Model the fold of this input.
Amino acid sequence: MTKKNDVCQSVVNGSELIWDSWLSSFQNLQGLQNEIEEKSLQVFEQQKELLNSTRNALNDLEEKSKKLSNEFKGNFAATEQSAPIMNWVNMIEEATKNAQTSIWNPVHTMTDLFSKSQEQFEQITKEAVKQQQKGRTEALEKIEEIVEQMKQRQKEIVPTA
Done:
């Protein structure tokens, strides 16, 4: 009779091991999905850093360009020049201002547009990740319940005593 009980107990233990392995697989899958989501969200931070460094570099270039233009104007104005040459310098200065405006305004507009788009995409992605995590958590809770129920049913079906 103890041999039969030992066999029954082995069946119960074996089936519990199978159910636990099955549950563990779901938990591992959920952990992997969480890691992938975390890495995806980290990409947004890296994009922000890249965008900020690009914006800073562009601002530095713009400032240096303006500084060089002002230095040129200051150096040229420091020397005595005739009226036609000063008119020519004023025309060059006006053309330089227009060129700088036509160059830097679109650049700033594009970086602002990219920043806003990136922020919106990040918010959408975060919300999607949140919903996925909620759904996975609920599914895992249900699977855990089912596994427990199956273990209990197995114990009821296979007598241990």
